[in-house]
User: Fold HEPN domain-containing protein from mine drainage metagenome.
Amino acid sequence: SLINRPRLAMTGIVFLSTLTLAGCMSSGPRPDVAISQAKTAVDQADRAGTRNYAAYDLTLAKDKLKKAKKEMKEGDYKEARFLANEAKVDAE
Assistant:
């Protein structure tokens, strides 16, 4: 009985850690729409010649879009959605 207590405690810690990590990840549905909208905004800004007068903003938008796609692949949908929305704003 005393021998099993440390094992039980460790199992509980591992379980709670797993739940915490899972809660930090997904946070809602996949951000496909937000990423698609950001990509459209970035592409339109690029075609409009934005790099000639707002190169910094366009670069920021592209970087954030790239990071959003990476976060989505890794399952952090909340961060991916946030970055996609930021990219869209930067591109507009």
Remarks:
- The mean pLDDT is 82.
